[in-house]
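[recover] target loaded
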């Protein structure tokens, strides 16, 4: 009986030691010079109708907080910041399948703001849309970027998960989430 009790104690101690050594260990990183990356959000007509100002603001805040946590956990010395929201009534498309079309429309109607953002290397800008009334957009297609052509531009559905900003603003090449 005593040998069984000793066996159980040794087994418990061994398992406890093995479990604690397999815990996730995040790297220690020193980020003294953090680069701010402001983001301008252009809100489409559909998104304005589908989401209240409070909900839109909450979603944007959540995206920025999540993005900053991802950057911090990855030891990337960068911080996403909110710059402004611009109402883009001209963008009344229900579907946002073609990123070049969306960017061209945005640039046509908001040329000065796009030029200002594009001239600053750390400034991002994107169009927020809503697929609440969409019949063609798949749930997994909630954002898009094409960094080879528009390195600072993205589009995202307000229904996207909170990690969308980090995914869309850092993914090289053409990407559709």
């Amino acid at each position: 009986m005593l040998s069984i009790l000793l066996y159980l104690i040794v087994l418990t101690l061994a398992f406890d030691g093995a479990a604690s050594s397999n815990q996730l260990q995040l790297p220690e990183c020193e980020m003294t010079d953090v680069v701010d990356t402001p983001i301008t959000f252009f809100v489409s007509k559909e998104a304005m109708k589908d989401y209240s100002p409070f909900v839109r603001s909450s979603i944007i805040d959540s995206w920025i907080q999540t993005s900053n946590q991802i950057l911090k956990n990855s030891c990337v010395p960068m911080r996403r910041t909110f710059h402004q929201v611009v109402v883009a009534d001209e963008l009344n498309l229900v579907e946002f399948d073609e990123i070049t079309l969306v960017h061209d429309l945005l640039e046509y109607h908001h040329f000065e703001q796009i030029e200002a953002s594009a001239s600053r290397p750390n400034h991002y800008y994107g169009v927020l849309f809503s697929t609440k009334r969409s019949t063609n957009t798949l749930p997994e297609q909630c954002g898009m970027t094409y960094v080879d052509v528009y390195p600072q531009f993205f589009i995202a559905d307000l229904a996207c998960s909170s990690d969308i900003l980090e995914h869309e603003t850092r993914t090289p090449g053409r990407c559709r989430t």
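[recover] notes: Strands lie at 35-44, 78-88, 124-129, 143-146, 153-157, 174-176.
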